[in-house]
Amino acid sequence: MENGDHGARFPFPFKPYPIQERFMEALYAALEQRKVGIFESPTGTGKSLSLICGALTWLRDFEEKKREEAATLLQHSERDRKEGGGEHVCNGVQKSGQEEERGSSGATTEPNWVSEFVQKRAEREMVNKLKDEEMKRKRREERLEMIRHNAQLKYAMKRKSSEVNEVEKLLQLSKQELSSEEKSHEEEEEGLIVADYESDEEATTKTRNCDDDDNDDDLEEEHVTKIYYCSRTHSQLAQFVHEVQKSPYGSTVSLVNLGSRQNMCVNPDVARLGSLQLINDRCMELQKNKHDKQNKADLEPKRRRGVAKATCAFSGYEKLMAMRDEVLVKVRDIEQLLQHGRETHTCPYYSTRMTIPAAEVVVLPYQSLLHAATRKASGIKLKDQIVIIDEAHNLADTITALHSAEVNGAQLCRAHSQLSQYCDRYRSRLKAKNLMYIKQILFVLEGLVRTLGGKVGLNPVTQSTQSGAELLTINDFLFRAQIDNINLFKVQKYFEKSMISRKLCGFVEKYEGKGVNTHSSSVNKESQRIGGLGRFLQSLQNKPAAPPEQQGAVEDRPSMASPMMLVESFLFALTNSNKDGRVVMDKQACLAQSSLKFLMLNAAVHFAQVVQECRAVIIAGGTMQPVADFKEQLLLSAGVSEERISEFSCGHVIPPENILPIVLCAGPSGQELEFTFQTRDTPQMMEETGRVLSNLCNVVPGGVVCFFPSYEYEKRILGHWESNGVLQRLAAKKKVFQEPKKASQVEQVLSEYSRCIQRCSSTGQGQSGALLFSVVGGKMSEGINFSDDLGRCIVMVGMPYPNIKSPELQEKMAYLDKNMPHVDGRSPGKTLVENLCMKAVNQSIGRAIRHRGDYACIVLCDRRYSRTGTLQKLPEWIRSSTHTHSSFGPAFASIRRFFLEKRQTQQL
Fold this sequence. Notes:
The protein is α/β, with parallel strands linked by helices. It is 56% helix and 10% strand. The relative contact order is 0.09.
């Protein structure tokens, strides 16, 4: 394969572009050499297909090489055995024994026969392991081949599955009917009480035993070498899966899609809960009931059975195994998995997780891969695997956000109130260890509320606090809250083992409105308990009028049901190293609106495990520039050596004459364009910007997309234009659209914008197209394609610097200045601000060119773009064609000539 032509080496659905061939060659080399690769390939260059074909070609070659090496080793072993290797070992032992006798008086080295014996035993173990692996592989391939080709078996399984489902449904209905008549209150109460919590030593011993069991399971289902592909959104993941389906590997690769329960649940009773947390809790409860039922049947067969607890009819083991095999033989996106799950009455969420060990490609969202706890819960093992992170331009910010946590005063007070009532109700049934940890958690909650200037036990809405923001190190915050004497690592372990947050959630759901308040109140506890008892006894006789879902309670519950979950996340964040994070105390007028936020400063500490465990990590994106701070803050800080990092950046597939990037330093009247904080709000600057747009709309066909640095500035400048008639003049040339405030309205606005451009293009009368006002970093600056006539000109007004006064940004800058090297005399903090700005610019201007035949003009309206350092941070394919104009006339002439030439070319 090494010397074949590119077409033969990398199977492709069509003849690849030269840049795609270079991309795949570089990708193959990075995977082979165990590199951490940064790959930049502009949108429209077929990046996804290049990733698929390049990575899967390497994977097939790697597996083939492994099989050949194993076969060679087995052949040698078999030949040695036939030639009397055993006799040779015996002779070796005798000979070595005699030598040892002769030199026993002064010999200090190990006898030769011992070394040979150890070597032979290691070889035998290796051979046996290879035989086992080969047997498992053949068995797995035979099973998948049978499922892939034996359609009759598939349909028979489907019929049998539907028949079993009908029986299970009838049984479940009868059980539910029975339980509704004979429901045992004692059984339900048992599920809400935390289990006995062992001492740390006992827990450690049991954990070791459990780990041993887990390892045994892993031996049965060993993880094959695979590619983990992750991206930001489910739509991007679905697009990737569709590309795999169209690729030459679409019919042979084993691919599995992972998603949350919220996205993959097919049980209508659970899915209708809506909230992610409620769905998770209900699903885990149903699974626990299933395991409890099995354990009780095994351990206590003669015990009188109580009322049957509800279990999930979609998670039968045989059905999950059948769907696991179905998933392995055919590439499906999440929608197709859901459809298949509904048809076979099988849970896609659990069956896809069972598929992970045998799958060659695992497709999953960012948080499932980048968050260690989620990774562990999903059964993802990164050791010696390949990870591809796509759309990774904001990877550091994503990791930071995943490991940051926030909780407000109202949630803290509710958590304290709920846990206090839980403790009061079950005090007599809780063991001493449980009571000790619950009291510690209550003590911690009191300290957290105290830092915000409030008190527990009172309504947080009516408690007034002194406004202001303060930023502390983790240690200083723990001292301030007076909880520095609490071992948060042990508290965190208690949260995980006891699942107190989930128990509390179930407790509140069950007793809300029956004496248990969801938030603090100064009502006397004794009268509260008596009143609650009366209501509880009454509830045993009366059935509720309608389920909570139908009363509209579900929409309100997610924020109310389990504030302890948020507290748990916040306390977990406080266990980070003191130098890697900060706590922001944001005090508002009242306690309920005040908040505590943990800010993660060092994303590398959480990314380190990924790059250390994986064989290779590929970080890909359409616009990865600038990469210097990315390498420094995320890779080098995570312990990746400079030699292990490889970079690849390719140009666009479009010819250079199809793009016209212009830095505009002055407007039509000669007004210098520099949108600093001091000058951008002046009437002269806003009117000059209007004149620039008006001139552009005269010569640009189709759609013009104008990006403003912030929503606030967009509102101010559009208001000014409306008052002096600029907006009306623009509307006469192109219909004006504005980015909507609600994400749900984006699709509608884009559809109307597109239809308007098509209508103007076909009629050729009146308006020449449409003008869309958007915001950098907003809903239309990422993930939206303004291809062809939808975006013939992208206008960037000013430079979108982040809010320098933000306490979070200031602390991040201070952290970088202290911990990162200064390059060329520039502080890392200032470099961060510039890079955040240019990354946002690159994402926005990259919306225009989406395929080889596309063409567009990019106008950067601010003279600061002409600085050498700023130009260097543009993508190379844009930077190489950029022209800087100090006056408007020549710039306008080049734009008019650009579109005139394109029109003439199209007419030929």
